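hey can u check if this looks right to u? its 91 residues, i copy pasted from the old doc so theres a chance i mangled smth
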Amino acid sequence: MDQGPGMDEERERDQGQERLARRERDVLALERRGFLGPGAKERAIREELGLVPVRYYQLLNALLDDPRALAHDPVTVNRLRRVRESRRTER
């Protein structure tokens, strides 16, 4: 039996594993990139995501505690969690 597009997404939702929203995926994708020069990342945040940097970092911080984000991009999320934890211990 042929399963049409979206069947996997429906199955994930039925199992309580909703996928990340487009904006959440875009935030993680931006974090995977490297930026050269001061202000380049902030400029990309404003131009590509239409967010002010403060709101971007609020969303990013919430994503680091979201199991869906970890499932979507474990390398990036774990790296950012380590950075966040090291900054917390420095304080």
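The CA atoms of residues 65 and 81 lie 9 Å apart.
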